[in-house]
Amino acid sequence: RSVWHRLKHAYDERFDSATHLRTCDEHLDTNWRYGEPLIAAALARNDPAAAEGLVARTVSSLLRLKCDQPWLPEQPLWEARRYGRSPEEDRALLDLLTRWEAVAQARSDGARAASCRLQRTLWTAADRWLDVLAAFEDFSKRGGKPAVGEELFAAWRAHEVATCRGCQGEADSKDDQSWV
């Protein structure tokens, strides 16, 4: 953004919160950082439904996903790993998933909260199989939907198989069923 846009944005943030939030909403799809004030405003209004939609849009922007529908925690995140991320973006994703979990709990959506919790583990510990298996067990105990768990497990498993094959230099896929 231009210097003038940043200057006006800072002015609006300080003196005209309605305009500031409108500007954030207009630019959220191209810059995930605009989601932070929108989420905070929705939570301050005690509007968890709006906050959840804004968290979804912010995560989709952060992941650079171009689609009609925002990413949801019930969907695999592996596609998003194609792009390099800064440590700030990794921390922001984990923070957004934590906030999404809290918003889902406030909305009495235990299944969504369980998905957020599981996604944090899959993002940070995908190569620590015991941690991931414990997270899937926790997912089930916390009310995660079985079909979602199966889809996320299959995606994680496929990712790990591909990663292991890449490390070993194997191109042979005849033994897909014996990965563990």
Shape: globular
- Percentage of residues in helical conformation: 55-70%
Q: What's the story with the biggest beta sheet? A: none
Number of helices: 8
Number of strands: 0
Q: What is the rounded distance between the termini?
A: 49 Å
Low-confidence stretches at least 5 residues in length (pLDDT < 50)? none
Keywords:
mainly alpha, 180 residues, 8 helices
Structure description:
The model has no long low-confidence stretch (mean pLDDT 87). This protein is 67% helix and 0% strand. It has helices at 3-15, 17-27, 35-44, 48-62, 87-106, 110-125, 129-141, 146-168. It starts with a helix and ends in a 12-residue tail after the last helix. α5 (87-106) runs antiparallel to α6. By secondary structure, the protein is mainly alpha-helical.
Summarize the helices and strands and which ones pair or pack.
Layout lengths: L2 H13 L1 H11 L7 H10 L3 H15 L24 H20 L3 H16 L3 H13 L4 H23 L12
Helix pairs in contact: 1-2, 3-4, 4-5, 5-6, 6-7
Characterize this entry briefly.
This protein has 180 residues and is mainly alpha-helical. It has helices at 3-15, 17-27, 35-44, 48-62, 87-106, 110-125, 129-141, 146-168.
